[in-house]
Amino acid sequence: MRTLHYPILTATLFLVAGQAHATDLVSIDWSPTGAFERELPVPAGKFAEACGKLAAQSAVAWHFEADAALDFNIHYHEGKKVVYPARLAGASEGKDTLKAEAPQDYCWMWSNKTGKDVRLKLSLQKR
Q1: pTM to 2 decimals?
Q2: How many domains does the chain have?
């Protein structure tokens, strides 16, 4: 029976490794002071995403800067429905405060529709 698990494990690792090259998916690990900062690559034609759980009625001040224009959104999923508390098209920077209405996994996401890689700096601070 053990040999049956190895092909599944190998296939799973292959899929995860393939996804890592296509996008940058980051889990938000809050510091003791409620901060999260990260520099992310956003590959040409791909996306980068930072996701983390928030309690209802929590607030997060967010700010990002990129060296080229990106499409940006903050979203979460309710079943098959995607809810977007914020969206920006063609932005190289953005700043606001997210007020979480529901306890969800919230994701900050950037899509790069250009032909070159873009560097992104993200700063989040719980309020």
Answers
A1: 0.80
A2: 1
Tell me, yes or no, whether 62 lies in a domain.
yes
Q: How confident is the model over 34-74, as pLDDT tens digits?
A: 999 999 999 999 999 999 999 999 999 999 999 999 999 99
Q: How many residues does the chain have?
A: 127
Residue 7: inside a domain, yes or no? no
Angle at 63 between CA 58 and CA 67, to 5 degrees: 155
Parallel/antiparallel/unpaired status of strands 81-99 and 47-54: unpaired
Let me know if residue 71 belongs to a domain.
Answer: yes
β-bridge pairing 59-78 and 104-111: antiparallel
CA triple 85-113-120, angle to 5 deg: 65
User: What ranges make up the beta strands (E) of the chain?
Assistant: 24-27, 35-42, 47-54, 59-78, 81-99, 104-111, 118-126
As given in the structure block, the two tokens for residue 24 are: 């940058």
